[in-house]
Amino acid sequence: MEKLSVKPAGTVVLGGDVTVNRLGYGAMRITGEGIWGPPKDRAGALAVLRRAVELGVNFIDTADSYGPDVSEELIAEALSPYPKDLIVATKGGWKRFGPGQWGHDATPAHLRKAVEGSLKRLRVDRIDLYQLHIPDPVVSLSASIATLAKLQSEGKIRLIGLSNVTQEHVERARRIVPIVSVQNRYSFADREWDYVVDYCEKNKIVFIPWYPMAAGQAADEAVRRIAKAGNAQPLQVALAWLLKRSPIMLPIPGTSSVPHLEENIGAASLQLTEASFKELYAVPEVTFSR
To answer: Is the pLDDT of residue 67 over 70?
Structure first.
């Protein structure tokens, strides 16, 4: 029996010199309901984080708004002092007002405060990858990115990424500082950002898809059939599709369950045929409300 590991998925390089395994872990779901407060099962959340690393995950994505603060604190509790090859990425630029409630704040003052807070909660002197969580409609993108560039020059951030952005945002940011990653919503049935994936591949920018399970579309008839034929689970097929979509793709499926985590990691060993890949590419897209 093949040993369960993320390693069959291969690797991807952030910023030219940071290599990570190409199936990470998104730490949003280890918080409470509505991504608010502590988890109901704290020991279970810590166990998921530790099991992810045991299975070869060396890229964990979080944000100061997950909890808020809770996800970062749990990561540090579970894994600090960190393995040398583990990259912990976090984000800032969202504020929280309650369960399921989010709001913009990418002002320079807030981002500086957010970075300082993340450094403390993660128990590090430098954040491996810091991502602007989302552009703020009332704050100049240049001002937000220039703040992150300044924090990088101060040694508080190693690499800079973006989240929830258009290609234009990426291009504007790259005029100020190197951008090593883009994190947008993306899946086989949610391909709004196809052109951004292509742009990232052309420019050697890692693409980190969130919501990789397509809002339940992993239950699509075609996915179920492909999964059954490959003795796999539908969610594994959805992840395998992402891995095949582009060599710069770095999926970060999240869960608060060890069995579910292990199921997700199983996708690293699943190889889709070209025919199956194209069939899923033709699945009607999910429509998301704006």
So the answer is: yes
